[in-house]
Amino acid sequence: MAETKRAFTLRSIILMIVVVFIFPFLPMIISGVWDWWEAWAYGIIGVFGFIISRAWAARRHPDILIERSRSIELQGAKPWDKILAPMLAFGSLFILIVTGLDKLFGWTSPYSLPAKVISLIVILLGFVLGSWALIENRFFSGVVRIQNDRGHYVVTTGPYRLVRHPGYAGALWTYLAMPIFLDPLGH
C-alpha cells in the first residue's frame, strides 16, 4: 500500500490527467475548431483506449501500473532508454500539435474519405496491438530494464508470438496514420 501511495503522487496524477484527457484533444485546443469530427474521434478513442487498456492490464497484473508510473526512476533502466522513451511518448504529442497548427493555418491539402477510413483502421489496430502487448506482458515497462525485482522473464505469448516489440509496432502504426486521419482540411 505504501508503495502504491509513493507511485501515485499528486504530481504523477496531474501529469496523467493532462496526458490522458488533454493531449488527445490538442488539435482542437490549438486550432480552436470544435466541429472537427476526426479530432473528436481520435480524442475519444485515445481516452477510452488508455483507460480500458490500463484497467484491463491492472486487473490481470495488479503491479503493472506501479511499475509503469515509476519506470524511468527505477534502477536498471538503460541510460539510452531514459532519453528514447520520453521521445517516443512525445512523438504523438508532436503530431497532435502539428495537426492543430495545420488546421489553424491550412498548410496541407485534404485527403480523401477512403484514405481517412483506412488511416482510422490503422490507428485502431495500432492501439489494439499496443494495448494487447500491455495486457499480455506484466513486464511492459515505460523503459527497457531487466525487472529482477518482479521475477522478469521473456514473454512469448499473445502478440509477442508475432513480433518482439508489439508496443512499439502499434505506436509506429498509429503515428504514421495520425496525420492522414487528422487531416485538417478534409471535413
Characterization of this structure:
- This protein is mainly alpha-helical.
- Helix content is 66%, strand content 0%.
- The chain has one domain (2-181).
- The chain contains eight helices and no strands.
- α7 (113-136) runs antiparallel to α8 (166-181).
- The longest helix has 27 residues, at 79-105.
- 26% of the residues are buried.
- The mean pLDDT is 86.
Helical amount: 55-70%
Quick one: overall form? globular
Structure annotation, total helices: 8
Q: Give the biggest sheet.
A: none
**In the residues, how many domains can be counted?**
1
Order of helices and strands: HHHHHHHH
How would you summarize what this structure contains?
This protein has 187 residues and is an all-alpha fold. 66% of the residues lie in helices and 0% in strands. The longest helix is centred in the middle third of the chain and has 27 residues, at 79-105.
Indicate the topology.
Elements: H1 2-7, H2 10-22, H3 26-31, H4 37-60, H5 64-70, H6 79-105, H7 113-136, H8 166-181
Q: What brief labels describe this structure?
A:
single chain, 187 residues, mainly alpha
